[in-house]
Amino acid sequence: MTGRDLLPIAAFALIAACVPLFVTSNVVLNFLVFTLIIALAAQGWNLLGGYGGQYSFGHAAFFGTGAYLTAILQVRFGMNAYPAFAAGIALAALVGLAIGFMAFRSGLRGSYFALVTLAFAEVFRVLANASEVTGGAAGILIRLRADPLNFQFAERGTFLWVAAALVTLALVATLALERSRLGAQLVAVRENEAAAQALGVDVLAVKLRAIVLSAGMTGAAGGLYAQYFLYLDAQIAYGTWISVEALLAPIVGGAGTVFGPVLGAVILHGLAEATKTIAGRIPGIDLVVFGIVLILVVRFPPRDIPGLLKRWRR
Amino acid sequence: MTGTGADPAFLAVRGITKRFGGLIAVNDATLDVAEGSITGLIGPNGAGKTTLFAVVAGFETPTSGLVMLEGEDITGRRPHHLARMGLARTFQIVQPFAGLSVRENIAVGAFLRESRRAAALAVAEEVAARVGLTDQLDKPAAALTVAGRKRLEVARALATRPKLLLLDEVLAGLNPSEVRDIVPVVRAIRDSGVTVLMIEHVMQAVMNLCERVHVLAQGRIICSGTPAEVVAAPQVIEAYLGHGAAARLQGGAHA
Amino acid sequence: MGFPPEIILEAVLNGLLTGAVYGLVALGLTLVYGVLHIINFAHGALLTAAMYAAYVARASFGVDPYVAALPLAALFFGVGYLVQRLVIGPASRGKDENILLVTLGLSIIIENLMLAVFRSDTRSIDVPYAMEVIEFGPALLSYPRVIGFGATILVGIALFVLMRFTATGKAIRAVAKERTGAALVGIDVAHIYAVTFGIGTACLAISAALLLPSFYVSPRVGNAFVLVAFTIVVLGGMGSVVGALVGGLVIGVVESLSGLYLGESLGQIGIFLIFILVLLVRPTGLFGARA
């Protein structure tokens, strides 16, 4: 990585850091923090799905695990928020390793991998909904104690800084991966598994490393969510909504690129807000827009758009 | 033929049989490849050449038999493991990483021995020069011509720094002038110390390049020898041209 | 385990009856997979839409769901045909991941349109026979479920006849086996794909009409069925019609028994675990040959 490669990331960090200085509206700050949390979860998906070509439909399993452990360790065991957050990331990564080991060892790919990850996330959701330690259907509440020592902040602007810092870290990590041996091998696996094997790539090991990093990053987004909203239930933590968000943002913004997930999250949630403003607060209408955007992006891949325009002009 | 055990051959294939259900693709095949040689594996279509390659390179587990590299039993080892041991292969149906540039394609191979990106990219450039791809380094692999893709297959395999290179029909589908261009590339690879085993249909190149040739027909090795010996052997002519052809041609080689 | 045998027998029988309708839901999914080789993630959402259609037929027009079943099947055949022809086909461009994403996008759109129109309330219809039971030896069987079981068998027979004896059925089987060859002999593959998708969706409409009297409908109700349907399809073997029906019965019984022993909320776990296990151990399913 050279300084020039890091420049766009530094620009992102700078812009994000300046936002709280000019924006004071809580609604806007809320929107931005939420979008950044989604971007972080999506960046996690991007490592495995975008670079590795393994499309997970169940990243909620990692998001929820990170979120729940962060909350449970504080609420039930009185642990400080920071080690709880770290433990949440670690457990999410471990869950990723376990799911990845089972799925990849069995040679599951494509639709089958998507299905099995979806099923795992659903198992977690049902379990979390029925278990006592997670607060069951009533959910779990982290006590409000706004203090930086508790990973809670009186000002939303401060939390925006924290979220932006974590996203920046994720961007740097993604760039580092892209430039590393693991990154090159991961992309090779995505493009052609047999050829990668012939060139000495241990496909299983590469996929496992990718899912561990991916799950950890999405787990971090879950922990951040818990610290910001201070409330979780099974539908929030393990619901399909977050699996879909994590996948949608990179697909829309550019899977397998450093900035794709951030770009996608901003586009999607910008569109969602715009739709709500125009159409009013009709439930689900923002997601209808997401669905339409997803189909359009698949039908007309953005990288083809210059070509399409050229053809159209002729 | 030498026995098993302490085998002097660099690559020794001993009694390999591979069945797919009721079909016997390779039947008790035994062959040697001497260190530093270019050895050919020829045979009619469907003879089992590619299956035998897949077994040697670890992509298929043989039903029975042994594969030994430098005296070590490597039967059934995974392909990535074999690549680390210095055995590289190309694919008959080229398998480029279509979304990547030529440089990045070759670098994937180079990353086997290099952990740093800069070093891997440097190896990629160096290897590209050896196979004549320097001008194409920044092209997407999908944009290469057939000949270019064949070169890319060779380059990627070379970038893993193999001791033994298995080439599966790298000349197939090329026009005569392209064949003429690649022949010296293969020879230069051998001269740099890499042992080469090649499946090939282009007999002119086989005659030109190979010191020794094994002929596979209907899953069996039916003949081994120098190119001149092999093309004159009646059982080889019959395998290609049908029963009785040898007598009609009276030993005249024709390919 | 302290349940008297009659209770267990009743659970098994009711499981079989419900399982038949699950099998019908899965039938549409497996048919689409067998011919188009795609996993249709919008299957559950289309079922939800069909259930709302049956609901509206009853609530607004007073049409009994059993009467509405056939007209709905025709309507949803058209919906399925157009969705495949106009959306999935063009957008997928033959790539597996694209199909995955497009059908996911469709399911998001349909599900949330239902949410926008009907809000998140759980709705059910009021039919006089909803609570009626039929005595079967010592067991009491729910009347709507018995109807559902019978209707599923009828649909199964109708599909068999369609596939075996009609020109369209032969064309579908030809496309399923060898797409390129079928195209070469003049079969319009895009049309056959859309017809197959339409038949799969029509199966859903009938399932919806059969489910509604004993079930509720909400915008996310399809989710409850879609994983069950995937489980059945994976268990029975992707693309296997017999596998879907048998798998449906098996899953119906598993769900019924695990509901009995584990309680309603954990009951679903049994199904998911079977699903994961089958995927990991034998992704070709019990009746499938293709990997």
Task: Please supply descriptive tags for the structure shown above.
heterotrimer, A: about 325 residues, mainly alpha, two-stranded antiparallel sheet, 2 strands, globular, C: about 290 residues, two-stranded antiparallel ribbon, about 75% helix
Descriptive notes:
The complex is a heterotrimer of chains A (314), B (255) and C (291). Chain A is mainly alpha-helical. Chain A is built from 14 helices and two strands. Helices cover 76% and strands 1% of the residues of chain A. Chain A has a two-stranded antiparallel sheet. The model of chain A has no long low-confidence stretch (mean pLDDT 92). Chain B is globular and about 60 Å long. In chain B, the strands form two sheets. A six-stranded mixed beta sheet of chain B has the order 6-7-8-3-9-10, sandwiched between helices. Chain B folds into two domains: 1-85 and 166-255, P-loop containing nucleotide triphosphate hydrolases (Rossmann fold); 87-161, no CATH class. Chain C starts with a helix and ends in a 10-residue tail after the last helix. The longest helix of chain C has 32 residues, at 5-36. Chain C has a two-stranded antiparallel sheet with strand order 1-2. The chains are: A mainly alpha (314), B alpha/beta (255), C mainly alpha (291). Chains in contact: A-B, A-C. Chain A binds chain C through residues 53, 55, 57, 102-103, 106-108, 110-112, 114-116, 118-120, 122-123, 126-127, 129-130, 240, 244, 247, 251, 282-285, 287-288, 290-292, 294-295, 298-299, and chain C through 38-39, 41, 87, 90-92, 96-98, 100-102, 104-109, 111-116, 119-120, 219, 223, 227, 230, 234, 265-266, 268-269, 272-273, 275-276, 279-281, 283.
Mean pLDDT of chain A: 92
What is the percentage of strand-forming residues of chain C?
under 5%
How would the global form of chain A be characterised?
globular
Order of helices and strands of chain A: HHHHHEHHHHEHHHHH
Specify the helix fraction band of chain C: over 70%
Assembly status: heterotrimer
Helix content of chain A: over 70%
Which parts of chain C are unreliable, with pLDDT below 50 for 5 consecutive residues or more?
none
Q: Tell me the Rg of chain C in angstroms.
A: 19 Å
- N-to-C terminal Cα separation of chain A, in Å? 41 Å
Kindly report the average pLDDT value of chain C. Answer: 86
Counting DSSP E segments of at least 2 residues, the number of strands of chain A comes to 2
Helix/strand order of chain C: HHHHEEHHHHHHH
Major β-sheet strand ordering of chain C: 1-2
Structural class of chain C: mainly alpha
Content-based structural category of chain A: mainly alpha
Biggest sheet strand order of chain A reads 1-2
